[in-house]
Amino acid sequence: MAEPAFASTGDLAEKTVTFAKIGAGLYAYTAEGDPNSGIIVGDDGCMVVDAQATPAMAKDVIARVAEVTDKPIRYVVLSHYHAVRVLGASAYGAQGIVASDATYRLIAERGQEDWDSEYGRFPRLFCDASSIPGLTWPTLTFEAGMSVFLGRREVKLLHLGAGHTAGDIVAWVPDAEVMFSATSSSTARPATAATRICANGP
Predict the structure, then answer these.
(1) Residue 57 belongs to a domain with what CATH number?
(2) What angle do CA 47, 54, 91 make, to 5 degrees?
(3) Number of domains forming the structure of the chain
(4) Cα dihedral 169→69→73→77 (10° resolution)
(5) What whole-number distance in Å separates Cα of residue 88 and Cα of residue 6?
(6) I want to staple 23 with a disulfide (CB 3.0 to 4.6 A). Which of 28, 111, 115, 176 is the partner?
C-alpha cells in the first residue's frame, strides 16, 4: 500500500484524522501523511510528541487527549525542528517544551527561515496561522539524553545522532517497549476518526 503524499502548495483537500491507541496510555494522532503527534499518558500527566503547525491545529490534539484522560499535558517534546511540527506548542500550556541542544541551535540559526519556507510550501498545514505567537523555543534541552517522569512512568528522550535533522530525538517508553520518533506512524485500528477542517483558512 502506497504511503500518503505529504502536503504541498497544490494540496488543499481536507484530511481524515485518526486517533489510535497503540499501547497502554499511548496514542498516535495522524492525518493521512501530515505530521503526526504522539501522546504518552502517565500517572499524573501527559506528554505530547510534536505539537502541530499552529495553536489552532494543536487544539484538536488537545481535544482528542481529553477524550481519553483528564490528566494535564505537562510536556511537549519536539522530535526535531521543522515549523510544521513545532509552532503549535503554545496551545498546550505545558510546563516544559523539550528538545535536544542541537534543535535549539537550529532554531536560533534558521528558525524564521524554516517557518517562512514551510508556510509557503505547505499552506494547508498552517490552519489559522495568525494564532502562532512566534517561534517555539524549548525550555528544557539536553545533549545526549534525559528522562522525564510522568508519575511512575518514565519516558527516555534520546538524541542518537543526526537523522532527519541534526537534532532528532526519539521518545522511548520502557514499560511499554514503544518508541516515538519523527517518522513513526501507527498501523493500529483507529480508535476514532474524523475530518480535520480549518474553518479560518490556511
Answers:
(1) 3.60.15.10
(2) 45
(3) 1
(4) 10
(5) 19
(6) 176
pTM here is 0.86
Measured distance CA(49)–CA(41) in Å, rounded: 11
**pLDDT digits over 186-202, tens only?**
333 333 344 444 544 44
pLDDT above 90: percentage of residues in the chain: 72
Is residue 157 within 8 Å of 170, Cβ to Cβ? yes
Predicted confidence (pLDDT) per residue in 85-134, tens digit? 999 999 999 999 999 999 999 999 999 999 999 999 888 889 999 999 99
Question: Residue 96's domain spans which residues?
Answer: 15-185
| Cα(176)–Cα(25) distance, integer angstroms | 9
Q: How far apart are CA 107 and CA 58, in angstroms?
A: 20
Give residue 17's identity as a one-letter amino acid code. Answer: V
Which helix H or strand E contains 19, and what residues bound it? strand 15-23
Phi, psi of 164 (to 5 degrees): -65, -35
